[in-house]
Amino acid sequence: VRLVESGGGLVQAGASLKLSCAESGPTSTNFEMAWFRQAPGKARVFVSFIGSRGEHASYADSVKGRFAISRDIAKNTVYLQMNSLKVEDAAVYYCAARPISFTGHSTTFPSYYPYWGQGTQVTVSS
């Protein structure tokens, strides 16, 4: 499984960005997907999760109501729409995948995701 993120950049606070994560490899419906982020000097933290067929989504409290995760199964792509960005949202954003055999395990711990992208930088200026 190969994951490639794109869509990061430099924006002002209050602006929007849409991140994309292109998956290649086995059928995407066999994988659950998530977004994590990591700010300098901090641990990698959960942002959002989506089920293998997009039937379930969850969010960290810090982004709830501002971010929306979705997936286009035909395009093997997962998206993260980020609205009303704040300075504290600045981080490297990582796409992660796990086989559906992991269903039932925590969705918020990085250790439950064996596949990762290289990350895309999001910078938010005040």
Fold blueprint:
Blueprint: E1 2-6, E2 9-12, E3 17-24, E4 31-38, E5 45-50, E6 57-59, E7 67-72, E8 77-82, E9 91-99, E10 115-116, E11 120-125
Parallel strand pairs: 2-11
Antiparallel strand pairs: 1-3, 3-8, 4-5, 4-9, 5-6, 7-8, 9-10, 9-11
3D architecture notes:
By secondary structure, the chain is mostly beta strands. The chain is built from no helices and eleven strands. The chain has strands at 2-6, 9-12, 17-24, 31-38, 45-50, 57-59, 67-72, 77-82, 91-99, 115-116, 120-125. Strands 2, 4, 5, 6, 9, 10 and 11 form a seven-stranded mixed β-sheet that branches. Strands 1-3-8-7 form a four-stranded antiparallel β-sheet, with no helix packed on it. The protein is globular, with a radius of gyration of 13 Å. The model has no long low-confidence stretch (mean pLDDT 95).
In short:
With 126 residues, this protein is mainly beta.
Question: What is the approximate shape?
Answer: globular
Mean pLDDT: 95
What is the count of helical runs?
A: 0
End-to-end span in angstroms? 37 Å
H-E order: EEEEEEEEEEE
Give the total of beta strands. 11
Fraction of residues in helix: under 10%
User: From the helix content, strand content and strand pairing, which structural class follows?
Assistant: mainly beta
Kindly estimate the percentage of residues that lie in beta strands according to DSSP: over 45%
Provide the gyration radius in Å.
Answer: 13 Å
Largest sheet: 7 strands, mixed
